[in-house]
Amino acid sequence: MAVSGTNIFAGTPGGIFVSTATTGSSNWRAVNNGLADSAIFSLAISGTTVFAGTDTAGVWKNSLSGILACLPVINASSSTDIFCGDSVTLSSSNGIGYFWSDGEATQSIVVTQAGNYSCNVTTGCGKVTSNTISVNIIFTNDSISASDTTTFCQGDSVTLIATASSPTGYLWSDGETTKSIVVSTAGNYSCNVATNCGPVNTNSINVTVNQPPTAPTISPAGDSVTLCQGAMLTVPSCWFCAPITSYLWSNGATTSSIMISTPQIDSLTITDANGCRATSSPTNVTTVLPSPQAIITSGGLTTVCDGDSVVLTSNAAASYSWNNGDTTQSITTRSSDIYSVTVTNANGCSATSSPMDVTVYSNPIPPTIQQFDDSLKSSATKGNQWYLNGNLMPGDTGQYYVASQNGIYMVERTNGNGCSSFSAPFNFTYVYVGIADLADGNSFSIYPNPVGNQLTVVIARSGATRQSLALDIYNVLGETVLSSSLSGVYPDNFGREGRGEALDVSTLPAGMYFLQMKTKGALVTQRFVKE
Asked: Which of 27, 28, 169, 354 would bridge 17 by S-S if both were Cys, CB 3.0 to 4.6 A apart?
């Protein structure tokens, strides 16, 4: 192959061919004038001369101008894309004779039909075929229009119209031959329109037809239905049915069920997500019987502790059905639950009460009592109330109690829900000594007991000699938690007790402690309770 400007030359076993870029690379024309051997093995262009090496006849040469002068060219008077009814003039370059592909024999022809046009021109080089020109017909309004949406529900339709005019007729894809057709079946529709310029295929329109939902069945259904006042007309759910987007009853209600209070005739229309509808058969409610009321009352509180009970009573009716299975007018329950009752009157009509919630709280674990000499301890850290010989001791609510007399002690433990439990009776027997005497004549007492933040120690001595005393406080584990010393506070000369010395015990946790007093010849211990 060789190229010169817009001209492309090709050497082939059948000779030399040329194509120009302006006419398209597919318009190859033979230029074999003067060529003795058509088998071409090599091709070259030098300046304005074309050289071709042949198989047996040596080298052929020719000028570019001489070759191109032998090539007829068709030119169009305007665009070759023309509207139906218009024309374009095709003209060949000069020659001696002309023979067009449509049979015409003039240098120029007027084209009104689509097609590929070329001309065989007789020139000084012989008969040479020109380039080929394609003429296309442009159709206006070759489409289909629809009178309404092309997606609709079964039972509806749409009109399709071929907008192109035809003097000879129409042929739709469904076989119809009119300008417009009424479509009620899903499918793709197009039309072949016969025009003066030939047949024209329109665009294709897709028509979608959605199936309506299954017609609902009202429950109860029938031509003559007797219902109780307050009964419901409903539509049973259907898991395999299409989703329903709206409901419309014949009385104007838009819910999935309606309550009946008077005789009436009702039907229901449902609409699915595609906008398709279906209507039920009507239900004729001829008689509406009065229904009872269902009310629960309780004989007391509905919140009790374990071991107590709650009595629930229904209003009077012909029969009763509690949600726990009982069928009596009153029930007694000792467990937490939500209770309701359905009552039935003499007409056979029923009503269900509002629910009543019964709560039964658990009692706390019963406490136990431990004795530490003259003191008692409850296993419960809070919620305590002490009893002596069956009698409540007002104000004695701590975990510890310093007993002042023998007897039967019990402690009651109450939790946050107000429920309580008692310890087992505890028989307390203890020889109360009172104030201990020191071996050298000293004695001491402490107060208050139980104590809050300050514990007062008072020392009594028969004599005028003062003596410094060591003091230690231990917890129930025997660990020293506080150590101090006292200068000694004695009674005055008239035997009256002097003021005591105060110890700060505010940092001690609540519990039982032992205060131990030490002198030269004595060691005495007393117990106290820190609140």
From this structure: 28
Instruction: Give first-to-last CA distance, the chain, whole Å.
Output: 117
Whether pLDDT at 100 is above 90: yes
Mean pLDDT comparison of 83-92, 286-295, 445-454, highest-scoring range: 286-295
Q: Are 88 and 135 in contact (CB under 8 A)?
A: yes
In the prediction, which pLDDT does 433 show? 34
Beta strands (DSSP E) in 85-224 are 88-92, 97-100, 108-111, 115-117, 119-123, 126-129, 133-138, 144-146, 151-153, 158-162, 169-172, 180-183, 187-189, 191-195, 198-201, 205-210
The residues, ordered by sequence, that sit 6+ positions from 516 with a Cβ below 8 Å of its Cβ are 471, 472, 473, 474, 523, 524, 525
Helix (H) or strand (E) segment spanning residue 68: helix 64-69
Domains of the chain plus CATH, in order, are 2-69 (no CATH), 74-138 (2.60.40.10), 144-210 (2.60.40.10), 225-289 (2.60.40), 296-361 (2.60.40.10), 369-428 (no CATH), 442-530 (2.60.40.1930)
3-state secondary structure of 167: coil
CA gap 434, 48 in Å, rounded: 147
Encode pLDDT of 157-207 as tens digits.
Answer: 999 998 877 777 899 999 999 999 999 999 999 998 887 777 778 889 999
pTM over 0.90: no
Q: What is the mean pLDDT of residues 241-252?
A: 88
